[in-house]
Amino acid sequence: MLTNRILVLCAWAGPATVVVAMIGWLIAGVLPVPLGSESSVEAVVSFYSHDTRVIAGLVISTIGVSLVFPLIAVIAVYMVRMEGRTPILAFLQLITGAATGVCLLLPLLLMTTIAFRPDRSPELTMTLNDIAWLLFITPIAPFMIQNVAIGVAILNDKRQTLPRWVGYVNFWIAFSFIPDPLAFFFHSGPFAWRGIFIFWLALTTYSVFLVVMGLTLRKAIRESADPDVSAVAAAAA
Amino acid sequence: MNGAVPRRVTAVFAGLVVATCITWWLGSRSSLTGNGLGLAAALTVLIASAKIYFIGRDFMELRSAPSVLRAAFTVWVGVVAVAAIALVVVPTS
Amino acid sequence: MTHPQVRVDPDLPEFLWDSDGADAAPPPARRPAKARDGHIPGEAGLWIFILGDMTLFAAILIAFLWERRSDPVVFEQSAHQLIQPIGAVNTLVLLLSSYLVVCAIFAHRGGRYPQARRLVAGAVSCAAVFAGLKAFEYYSAISSGHTPSGHMQGSGTFFTFYFVLTGLHLLHVIVGTALLLVWQAMLKRRRSWTGSQKVAEGIASYWHMVDLLWVAIFTLVYLVSAE
Which CATH number fits domain C44-226: 3.40.50.2300, 3.30.9.10, 3.40.50.360, 1.20.120.80? Predict the structure, then answer.
């Protein structure tokens, strides 16, 4: 059935986000070692001087991060099933999820714009780079609200549409974003925007979110489409 | 278990209080020699690790939990203890 | 893709159709429950969160000890500016609150609701004492000029970690207190043990985690740094 296939594709968009975005960032040079707040002006200017590579890589990464939108949609479908007639948490997830997509897209587009004119004044480049990175790292609220909404919906779901541990994982992921606003306060060290407890932790846990949700939903879609499992469910009820 | 709190749990609590006082006392002593620094710190970490282990075992009731869970918790305590002791005791050159 | 017992409602989109009596039906058995060789306090998923949370804290504590190695003398001086007795009293206060929570679990199990409520109230009071002492500590540290500084050097680094670690921990205390109050509400309604076991044990386990994390923070930030 076409709807089913679309649901499955949307679920796969979760892991796909991680893969495509990482490929883009590797090409652009954002990974493995991103620019930090402690990077010198020369380092920043030199990074954006490889303009073709940086632009190509970042464009790929923007396509990558946009793949969160299908995942958010399929999460919403399942949350509506969990909540029933008043799917407030599903709507909350939908809105905040959409916001997270934008929060991921804009900084990357800004970085691409920096690479548009590599001969810009270094001060401007530094400033734009600061803006891009801080916008990328610090807006935690949409992400946290999205994760908490998912967690609460899963734990409150009597029908156990999705496994309960996924709810707890969402809470843990939300928690892992809390230190991120510290990036505003530190220019170096583990709490700066490139710090291990900021960029690397958030990157890891958000990737976990995308992969876990994608795979869990794919399994749930498959099981609800499988006539044997549905029959067992009907017989047990 | 419908009864009152087992004496074991109360004993653990008493032990935790005592251990806290011991580590507090250890911490308030100024180090006498250069080597004394490492020993007192290592001892403090060891006592604290034991405290954490017993909180898990008796307060969190992990002693009656599946062995996998208990093992995961014990591994956490062990890894953190070893890492902490190593970082504190190994001299900084 | 629809379940046989779903009530079709042509006015609503498919995903809003209620399964008839689905709320009253037990959750469909997808696979047989594995026989376990023990009882998981709360539920399995919660422990992913608890162990994950503990691991995050452990990582920050290890990072703290790592940073200490570049300047142990300054760390020692900075640690001495913390009011150790407050840290120690806070440790004892949280240990007491954990003990009261254990007692409350046993009371709830045994159906002794008034006693359980008193014990949980006691634990919440301990949390309030902890928060009060912490507020005093923060006030005293900030008025001595120590803030989570933007400069990761020497005493700035120590106090950065101090505020981040204790701040994150305080957030946990606040969440834990809210959960204790949820439990208190369940006790007021005299919810039976069988209906509340998972939730009560889960809340209790979370609170013990809060206690245990403070033991780690007190040990490493207050004591070991100062030795």
Answer: 1.20.120.80
